[in-house]
Amino acid sequence: MAKKVVILGAGYAGLVCALKLNKLATTQDAEIILVNKHDYHQLITQLHEPAVGAKKQEDITISLNSILGSKPIKFIKDTVVSINKEAQTVELEHSTLSYDYLVVALGSDTEFFGIPGLKEYSFTMKSVNQANRIREHIEKCFQNYNKEKRDSMLTFVVGGAGFSGIELVGELADKLPELTAKYNVPKDKVKIYSVEAAPSIMPGFDPELVEFSKKSLEDRGVKFLIGMPVVQVEPGVVHLKNGDTINTDTMIWTGGVRGVKQVIDAGFETEPRGRAKLDEHLRALGHTNVWIIGDASFYLNPEGRPYPPTAQISVQMGDLAADNIYASIKHLKLESFEPHLYGAVASLGRKVAVANLSPKFKPKGWVAYRIKDASKWRYLSTIGALFKK
Ligand code: NAD
Questions:
Q1: Residue limits of the FAD/NAD(P)-binding domain (predicted)?
Q2: Residue nearest to ligand 1 atom 29, measured at CA
Q3: What is the pTM assigned to this prediction?
Q4: Among 26, 185, 249, 328, which is least packed by CB within 10 angstroms?
């Protein structure tokens, strides 16, 4: 009888896993069920673009039906509430599923570090819906400025200058001048702050590329407050560690990620930020039939550091999880996770990016931007969505 494989989440990891398993297994081997909150797949690496209105929702989402087509993958549009690993069931908002094999690929939650008011009074950017909310809000600030004339309406604060924060700040720097012209708003009133607690923006990234990124963004008007933790947020006010405050109607938090509630609540072994610990085959520790992949997971590289929660790692985890589920069904040897790392690329707006691809190849500017774009198209081809956009 076919084994029931339930895959939770159709992000990079879950979708790739479902598609690969479908390639490997026949319907006699596996019944594949894919659960996702929305009926579309989101290119979350591009969220900063719709967040400022540089792209539309349809540019960064792809209908799951169009990707799955007539493949024997059953898609259920529903939200995962909880996992009962003892009973081997998953509670969805509208039904309960049982499984023989489970893949948890539910992404990550935002880490607020317990900072007072941060969760309540800031925007986050983890889904296309949240990106749309940010865009609508920014547009309203510009639209209403000439009526209300509050400076905080044109002051934009991005908390956290990791890759998410920097990519967003880059888009803001390119988009806000357009809104200034559109709504006839005084240019000198528009302020973009990037606030970072660590001694440098993009902590851990190549120092030469960090310097280039900082200068490129400063040249377009971004003000950096570095080594300056956000310590509290109140409606309209961001408090910094040195006692300074910024009056703003727009605080966007990109200060970090943590594991998802469903994994923590289910009692899987996690590290302090709630990401699941895995064995070398990407299975949850102590479980031979549960794979936890993508941003929800915590897997150490040979130097003992966790692989970053990036799309390239998620895709490779999805691929290997499918191989190992198939191997488990067929009683074959399981493979270990040894990802190929292609380096990191961060965009700094519409035409500029920085890429750390190897010690000798660190392109910046337009070339790096094209490389980032090419990786998006290569991914779309992997999921068979190249011509579905
Ligand atoms: P992150 O954890 O990488 O960065 C968060 C930043 O917020 C850090 O620099 C941290 O020092 C700062 N911060 C934390 N608390 C703060 C405070 N109180 N005040 C001010 N700053 C504070 O998170 P991210 O940028 O969302 O990225 C998450 C993961 O996704 C990373 O591994 C990143 O590399 C990856 N990512 C990759 C890309 C890409 O490859 N282009 C894009 C986005 C994210």
A1: 3-318
A2: 309
A3: 0.95
A4: 26
